[in-house]
Amino acid sequence: MTAVETVGLGRRFGRTWALRDCGLSIPEGRVVALVGPNGAGKTTLLNLVAGLIRPSAGSVSRFGEPIRDDTASLRRVAYMAQDSALYPTFTVTDLLTFGRRLNPGWDAELARDRLDRLGIPSRKRVRQLSGGQRAQAALVLALAKRPDLLLLDEPLASLDPLARHDVMAVLMEMVALHGTTIILSSHIIADLVETCDWLVAVNGGRIQISGEIEELLAGHAMVSGPREARTLLPDRLPVVTETTSGRQAQLLTRTGAETFGPAWSTRPPTLDELVRGYLGTPEATALPGPTSVVR
Ligand SMILES: Nc1ncnc2c1ncn2[C@@H]1O[C@H](COP(=O)(O)OP(=O)(O)OP(=O)(O)O)[C@@H](O)[C@H]1O
């Protein structure tokens, strides 16, 4: 089953398109890394999938159904927004009471255990928590709802490295135990490598990549060799991006494990190299179709 499907999805603010022609099909049970530079359209996409804003064009469906405002549909989704707007005068206990009353499937044990483990005192008010503690509390609210689809907008941004690692482990547990589909945006690719198995890259309001990370890595190569041997590479090589450093040239290509003679070495890219290669070349795309061969 598809967890999220968008067809020709677009959202305009005034005359500016924040997101355009977005076609995505994300299978259930995936942990999706949503990446893109500042202002790319990531939050806009998450807001559309959460149903917080309406499309200016196209459509979104979750679990095969168009987004509706009814409680049954909303119950399946949790969204932790970037600014995790928690009521500042609420205590942590108030937040949990609020969560329990609003959500029939509320997992009180999960919420309590996690807050205890994080050492977040339940008597403290939201405004007395640190930025990282507030983010953790917001995440607890999202997790304890036990959603089928969990949307997280930069959940790791205010967390220290250990906390980031811990959050990713909790997300993995959610997927393993409940088959939750998770879409999380982040600027720190290293945090995503071990956990995410699907990549969506947005750039300038357009989707550049959407696919299984393993397949994407296997379908690309880092090709390195001496600059002066550049002419020995095939003319029609699908190059995503090319950099030179001293006498060395390095290309990210859509060629998989091909080899190009003794002067050139080929290896699969890392996730970071793949993402940087595409985001640095906004016109490149790894989506299927006639635009997929870059140059
Ligand atoms: N409510 C709004 N009114 C006007 N413009 C908006 C609004 N929300 C977003 N935009 C514009 O839409 C574009 C995409 O913004 P969005 O917040 O989706 O980007 P993002 O990828 O989440 O960025 P970041 O990584 O900086 O959080 C930007 O140009 C932004 O200025």
From TrEMBL:
Q: Which GO terms describe its molecular function?
A: ATP binding; ATP hydrolysis activity
Q: Where is the ABC transporter domain?
A: 4-229
Q: Which domain of life is it from?
A: Bacteria
InterPro entries, per database record: AAA+_ATPase, ABC_transporter-like_ATP-bd, ABC_Transporter_VariousFunc, P-loop_NTPase
Which SMART domains does the UniProt entry name for this protein?
A: AAA (SM00382)
Q: Answer whether the UniProt record assigns the keyword Nucleotide-binding to this protein.
A: yes
Instruction: Name the UniProt key words of this record, in alphabetical order.
Output: ATP-binding, Nucleotide-binding, Transport
Q: Report the CDD domains cross-referenced here.
A: ABC_DR_subfamily_A (cd03230)
Name any one Pfam family assigned in the record: ABC_tran
Q: Tell me the PANTHER family matching this sequence.
A: ABC TRANSPORTER ATP-BINDING PROTEIN ALBC-RELATED
Indicate what this protein is called per its UniProt record: ABC-2 type transport system ATP-binding protein
Q: Which organism is it from?
A: Asanoa ferruginea
